[in-house]
Amino acid sequence: MPVVSVRDARKAFGGADVLRGITLEVERGEVVAVIGPSGGGKSTLLRCMTLLETLDAGDLSYGDLAVARQDGSGKAIYARSDVLKQTRSRFGLVFQNYNLFPHYTVMRNITDAPVRVQKRPAAEVEQRARELVAKMGLKGCEDKVPCQLSGGQQQRVSIARALAMDPEVLFFDEPTSALDPELTTGVLRVIRELAAEHMTMVVVTHEMDFARDVADRVVFMDGGVIVEEGPAAQVLGDPREERTRAFLARQG
Ligand code: ADP
Ligand code: MG
Question: For a 10 Å CB count at each end of the chain, is N or C smaller?
């Protein structure tokens, strides 16, 4: 059973069709890179999959949890709020702009949701947070606030924060696009390490070398549809579709 799946997902904003029938299944341990030109619907797909937006039509499930099911007319009907709440603890999301609480320390940023939302014991969460701080290369930063950190460090805090919830799948939306190349390296390194540990991940990225190295599967989205998908080496090295070829040629 896939960790997460969407089927025939559709979304429009004010008459503009942004998702025009997306079907995507992510298996346990799989790393999927989503690439494509700006405006193609990548962020909207992630926002719909992580319940920040609702689908107009289609199905969405997390394992055995049916989040949205289309009715006879195709309209997406969402599950009750208790199911949505359960669903929210199955995934983590890392944005381009970190979205940390500016007045909380690094530790508090990481421990807040597991303690307050998941109601886990504070001591256990604290210990897990210290492990994650070390894993993210942030030892010594525990009591700092975000503005005392570099952008790369802040992004690694936001990855630690997402991992502290023990998600089954992590979504990243262009996690390095706000960072200088030298800060990008550290963030990509921790994502590579997570991939080596078989963390299930969906990563929207414009870093083609990273996608080639880390992703099991690459999905090329343009104009609200999946134009092409397949093993990273095939899609990036020998694309079948002209639109994919043209996009990759522009990436340099
Ligand atoms: P990508 O992440 O691939 O660059 P997006 O999903 O951000 O693409 O955007 C796809 C299209 O949807 C764009 O034309 C964008 O302007 C539009 N869009 C995204 N979010 C909204 C919104 N909340 N309201 C109106 N239009 C939106
Ligand atoms: Mg985007």
Answer: C
